[in-house]
Fold this sequence. Notes:
Blueprint: H1 11-42, H2 47-71, H3 74-84, H4 87-112, H5 115-121, H6 129-138, H7 143-159, H8 163-183, H9 195-216, H10 218-225, H11 235-269, H12 271-307, H13 311-338, H14 340-347, H15 351-383, H16 388-412, H17 416-442
Amino acid sequence: MGWGRHFRPSEKDFERVVRLALPVTGVQLGLMSMGLVDTLMVGRVSAPDLAAVALGNLFFFTVGVFGVGVLLSLDPVIAQAVGAGDREAAARGVQRGLILAVALAVMTSLALLTANVVFRVAQQPEDVIPIAVGYALASIPGTTPFFMFVVLRQSLQAMGRIAPILWTAFAANLLNFGLNWILIWGNLGAPRMGALGSAWGTSIARWFLALALLAAAWPLLRPLLRPRRVGVGRLRPLVQMLSLGVPIGFQFQLEWGAFAAIGLLMGLLGTEEMAGHQIALNLVAFAFMIPLGIGAAASVRVGQEVGREDAGAARRAAGAALMLGLVFMLGTALLFLGFPTVFGRAFTDDAGVIRVVALLLPIAGVFQVSDGLQAIAAGVLRGVGDTAAPMWANILGFWVLGLPLSLLLGFGLGLGPRGLWWGLAVGLSVVAFLLLLRVRARLAQTLGRVQID
């Protein structure tokens, strides 16, 4: 089956994807903006503080992104159950997701305790390590609510009920800004904590996210959370959910790990390079929230159609999502290619850091399209329960090809920061190509529901 009429969406298919993608994207942008605000506010303190936020945040998500991926196993489980009208299967999925969230939070917290050893083995700048270690440790109290929020968010998204998540994310941003103003700068009698203050503010905001979303969406969540379903703690169905989620976790870990590796390599080049990389990465990640949101919407729409046993509608939903993502990422690519210095000056006054940002953003403009397409294709595959293919594509694209090329260009050929990012660009392009091929092949097959006993 090619990309012809079978994937050609109608106006109604576009409308359905957009109706879900817009609020989901709003949520993604709201969550991402918390990190952007942290970077903007800490960037006015000092270059070491900014680099420490980059390193500490990088470490938090490096050890935590696997858990986020595992919990995305809820996408096919709940979306397909919703499409099939199977409310009990949806409830069991949510409750099992919360059990997994607590276990994953414990694992992540233990990993964060190793921050000092990891940073020193990675030979990060001496003036950055103590601040970054403090940032990582202050993030530990926020790990449990962070994973619980992911479960609640994915469950509501799979039901197509996004408004409570959107409003909660908006309120959390206001809280995070206020806490940053107090803790980073030492206002209202608080000590001036710099980067460490942003970490504590983020942990508090994560508790707010989980509790506020539970309260705001309680009428929707109560039938899924109460009463406790018989057998939700049984090992077999939990292992079945893990068999879906672990490949997603590894996919996220591999992709994030590739960016984390580039961040660590930037640290070897110097503090300015690390700080500039952090600013450019924040901008790229902010833009990436749009296709990530479209990918999440695609996962839900495709999953619901699989539950309804309508393979044609699933294919058209996939086509609509991919076309929407392509158009948006072409737009952001033009912005990054045309105005890199303007973006850098918005974050810092440090001329050396701005120079690095101006070097990196045009490269980001080149790989924006591939990055968006691979995220949406992975979402489509997640909707049908195909979670292993994206993992293997990431292994080949990033770790077999992309990172070795980054090392060759950045250090072997002396291209520095630009060389490291060009390797990433090649890796992303390979991943996108492989996943698009897999989407075409997988949706040509018979589509059936994911079965959790």
